[in-house]
What does this fold into?
Amino acid sequence: MNVLDRGRDQALALFRIVIGFLFANHGLQSLFGLFGKSAVSITSWPGGPAALIELVCGTLVCVGLATRPAAILASGAMAYAYFVVHQPEGLLPIQNHGEAAALYSWAFALLIFTGPGAWSLDGYIAAQRQKDASAAAQTV
It folds into this structure.
């Protein structure tokens, strides 16, 4: 095993945490007007629902809770944002300012397949369930 392979689980966990944190910040910015941007109404389409998805799914991915369902929703939302909002302005992301939407969509697509990984609430819950099942099996 090479030295880079030894840190794979931790690197994927850091990737998940950072992507979730950054995505949640977009939601905070859009919903509450933080970080120098004016807030969008939750009822305005598609900005309001997108901001809510960013905040909720970003937070879930960051802490590693319901990671795969949150990543599916986030990836789909960003693909929608790219193709409906950005792509009509030009074919390439550099032309239509859709780089962030494209990158987030692909980052969350990766997390759908890699799952929550290390340092996640999903992992903690699974370990607790396995521990409880082992304890129950030993008492029978």
